[in-house]
Amino acid sequence: MNLSVYTSALLSDIERRIVPEVEDDYIDQWNRFWRGSSDDIIFSPMRKNVSESRIEIKNIHINDALNDYELMLDMQLANVSNELKRGKNALSIRANYGTGIITSLFGAKIFEMPRSQNTLPITRSFNDSDTIREIVGRGVPSIHKGFGKKVFEFGEICLEVFKNYPKISKYVYMYHPDTQGPLDIAELLWGSEMFYEMYDDPDLVHTAMRLFTDTYVSFLDKWFEMYPNRAGLNAHWGILMRGNICLRDDSAMNLSPDLYEEYVLRYDKYLLERYNGGIVHFCGRGDHYIHLLTASPHLTGINLSQPHLNDMEKIYASAFGNGKKILGLEAGACHDYEGTVDPIRSMIHKS
């Protein structure tokens, strides 16, 4: 790929600023956290040295990046440059095409948000069970349709570009795209009709969930052929996690514990085992099923984005009782935890 003067300068600037000793120390901080040997009650890693960029970082609009691989690369590299200045998060990038990557493989219509929003696109749900039956009948789709094509082409470009930058290749993690999780894929594709069918046609829901799980596997198996997981920790959202995948379970907040166990947990557990562990993210409330989630043997940690909607005592009890870390917890919730009686050390990472 013929790169612009700006992209080449940005790559060279990042390569210059990456200091192996600093990054090795940063990674070692995370390793101590996962081993439980960090001295901090709340883990908040920081690089020993930070640096300013020597070039002016461009502000790339997401709508432009969606349709231009070099602009997508520029946008992702800008995040790396900013982290070398901030010193807080892991150096990481991804093929950033939003939550509708997997649903677009099934023919869901892609909807790009108005430019004024400057936010990631989505796909429109069918909200029709007959359409889902047709989709189920067709089986696993091509992973190179919809956003899949862009994800893998962007991944190939990064492989080509980064081979000329050894420190970027070693210390900047290319983490897996936003493949959501089987339940989130189901709701994004199916719509609210899915919840009715859990009562009216449970066999259809399970058949669909198996299809979405198989499609998730087909997609990520191809991704991990291109970008094999590292022997130690792997990155996601600037976090260094133990395990290889991050499942999203935002839709689970709508389910009772019984429905969660029936329609979500079995598929998540299968994926966590297949990919040698990982973490689960959820928005909204999850304290009503947290005891089921944290009992999963291959789960290593959880990430919840709205602790104020949860009974955090239940979250702590279930997570810590099962040896699971809480990752990316917002500062306010971390402050509240530090004020509790006898807080457990090295179990919470602050965002």
Observed structural traits:
351 residues, alpha/beta, two-stranded parallel ribbon, 49% helix
DSSP strand content? 5-15%
**Average pLDDT over all residues:** 97
What structural category characterises the helix and strand content?
Answer: alpha/beta
Q: Largest sheet at a glance?
A: 6 strands, parallel
Radius of gyration: 20 Å
The number of distinct helices, counting runs of at least 4 residues, comes to 15
- Describe the strand arrangement of the main beta sheet, using strand numbers: 1-12-11-10-9-8
Instruction: Please give the alpha-carbon distance between the first and last residues.
Output: 35 Å
Q: What coarse outline follows from CA principal-axis ratios?
A: globular
| Helix residue percentage | 40-55%
- Secondary structure: number of strands: 12
Structure commentary:
This protein is an alpha/beta fold and 351 residues long. The chain has 15 helices and twelve strands. The strands form four sheets. Strands 1-12-11-10-9-8 form a six-stranded parallel sheet. A two-stranded parallel ribbon has the order 2-5. The longest helix has 25 residues. The mean pLDDT is 97.
